[in-house]
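Running this now, will post back.
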Amino acid sequence: MTGVFTGDALWEQFCKEHGTAPEKRKQWFVEEPIHQDGQTWLLQANVWGPSTQVLADGLDEFGGGLVSMAPL
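Update: finished.
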């Protein structure tokens, strides 16, 4: 999203822009957004699968080191 948002304002803007139902908040890391170059990024919880490996390969460098990947 363009702009820097946090907390409830972040969630309201995210729902508005992406048509996400407000009750889906637990599926997103709303309390831990990533702000970079005037953008706000949210990571979705519990979306890991074989097709997401490409995403994982780039996350370590995203957000100036705010995101890291480690096996459980």
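The radius of gyration is 13 Å. More later if anyone needs it.
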